[in-house]
Amino acid sequence: MESRSLMSEQVRSSGARARDWLVAAQDLVASAPTVNPRYAFQILVGLWICEQGLLEDQSYPCTSSYTHKVCQYIPKDTDEALDFLYADPALVMFSLGILRFFDVSCDHIEQFTAKISELLREHKDQDEEEASELFLVRFLLRRLRLHPPLTSYRLHIPDAAELIHADEVSMEGLVKNIAAATQFGQVTRGLDAGSLRTLSSLLPILMLDSFRDYNLEAGMQILRSMRYLHLYSHKSRGAGLSFLLAQQQVDGRFGFLSHELTQLKPEEQQASPDLYVYLPLTVSFLWTVAETAHPQFVLAQSF
Hints:
The chain is 68% helix and 0% strand. It is mainly α.
């Protein structure tokens, strides 16, 4: 009980420091010579995760105040606005859900999301792989009341030998399939018992192996998949959470990427590394920490 209490306090402290860093990052976005609206929307989602998922602060002081600023970063030019919106529709829909929660309207985003809803209603998936690929956007549209009830998705698990040697592309396809088949943990009854045993045995190994190689995004995707499969009691879940918390810097951002920063292309180096590199990574960390530490929180269902 004492260790759980200590971990809970560590999670709250982590969320508070990350929130402070995200608030400071707002100034970087505002002062950047070239406005990139993606950064503003990533900050919005990060603040929401901190206050809703980690701090459980129902007054949402930082998120609510930022909702009134974020839409100003959408380009006034329609073509430029659409370029941004189509580049990351899931981020846009997460943001729309948060804006609606605070009764903040943004015509560009509402119109774009309605158009995506229309396109997906008419779209026929070529195969189950494409269906899993589009699941997140459809799920978010459903949460936004812009899509009919989702159909069920089948869980496709390779055998143990294939899974243990799966490459990064295969693993990314698997975690998307798990999210779709479980609808982010809402549906687990009826899943094949043998497949679940295989995943319960091998996902923790693959997660820890990814973290050992400092393949952070892959490890976090697997850890979130474990949550959707309700693998709460596995010891590696706690080990994964402890690893993530240990990756937070003093100022609140996540990751230690000094080597990776030296590998940036010249055009990438023109952007602030805090925004270009650390901001999206920090949001991924917060997403994973929140869903791992507090299983009742699921980002895609949180608004």
